[in-house]
Model the fold of this input.
Amino acid sequence: MDDELKIALLTEQWHVNRERGASLMFKKVLIANRGEVAVRITNTLQQMGIVAVAVHSQPDRWGLHVRRADEAYALEGESAADTYLRIDRIIDIAKSCGADAIHPGYGFLSENAEFAQACSDAGIVFIGPSPDVIRKMGDKMIAKTTLADAGVPVVPGYWDDGNADVATLEKQAERIGYPVLIKAAAGGGGKGMRVARDVKELRSGLDVARRESVSAFGDDRVFLEKYVASPRHVEFQIFGDSTGRTVHMFERECSIQRRHQKIIEESPSPALTPELRDEMATAAVRTAQAIGYEGAGTVEFILDESGAFYFLEVNTRLQVEHPITEMRLRLDLVRLQIEVAAGLPLPFEQVDLVPTGHAIECRVYAEDAARGFLPSVGTIRHFDAPVGANVRLDSGVQAGDEVTVYYDPMLAKLVVWGMSREEALSRMVWALRRFAVTGVTTNIAFMAKVIGDPAFVRGEYDTHFLDSFAVEDHESIPDEVLVASAMMARDAKKQVHGSQSAATAAASPWRDAGGWRGV
Ligand code: ADP
Done:
């Protein structure tokens, strides 16, 4: 085919796709979430010319996600159970405001098959995979069985219907070899998980894991897995569309965890060779194909010291750490989710996806590292975030906002990109040092310490890295910043006119304290 003809055909195809896209595309989307992810989704919806609808609890009525949305509706109540987890109320709001689709974000109802089904029953598109896929992948035992059958390596262990008696489980633990990990079939967020080093710990661990799982998930089924002593957590982003095309978007290394919760993520993983990356990517795509995956998902693996990897689970939603993938591939994963949910094909094939450079994400929590990571609540006085080339901040708060006890204390995600890991690391150190938050205590200084740790810099770490990490009192906001902030708070109170946020925005703790060089 000559070039001119090829160009003419491609141009025509582009116009057809554009028109089809415009006719299929949603006009209004409700975001069933709060905080940074709701703001993140709102941004993309508005860029696409789609009306972004927020829902909010009583404590969140002035929240950033509400202020940024085009429309906002109240979910009366305070607790998550009374608000962001209320399927009936959210569907009612979506119907009455005329939303075509619902984006669930992550957490809350994002992996709730019943919610996905309720959306579909109400004639509203759920931006995510089908209820059936969510249900199957939400049950760790069904997921393991499905993927083992598809030839994906899974952690050796014992799983049947989850209701085996203690004697059977004792026998199976002997066979697997101690230490073993007891896991809840319905588990998530590290809940219902217990390590057992001998039969005594197995017996007590089973009780605790079942109890924890019943209270968190209303399900007491548990199974056993070989406990991998020194694992790394490496996950692959997958994406599928309704035409059956499935791609992976490379890996994210998420081994820096506290109580099984990720805090710092990076991509690429310092632990993968090109061969191992290919092998794991193939397993991830096989996973997506085995379950007919549509939309954005994540296949999680653990990697042992010998380089053997095992499937852990599929997260059937947008992942918190998705920005590091976006930075390396220059993609907007939320936009792709919306397009795929609207029935459009993925606009690329696997060969088109060529990641560049290195990206790192730090999750900023309102918590006090020096006091056992106790959540910190209060009014944010200053929120002075770094700005610069290849620095991104996905935030759910601004100065003047209230951090309450009701929800997860993650405030924001700081993400940087560099040509190399070294460049990304030095950019992150700079960004953390330039990030001043006062009014609540954050883990920013703690993360700067982790990023600067020699073993972390060498890329030598596993999921236990933070277990032995020393937390010192002086690793907090320097006194001069606190003093400057207190003075400004006093001055702000004195102001008769003007809002508090205008008063606090007018001054910066950096300017008053002459910079923060304490970390
Ligand atoms: P959840 O769904 O509760 O988050 P996962 O199965 O995803 O549980 O595991 C969470 C974390 O627990 C992993 O990132 C890893 O650090 C640890 N983990 C899980 N399975 C094993 C295992 N078999 N051996 C050692 N560590 C494990």
The first strand starts at residue 28 and ends at 31. The chain has 18 helices and 23 strands. The longest helix spans residues 3-24.
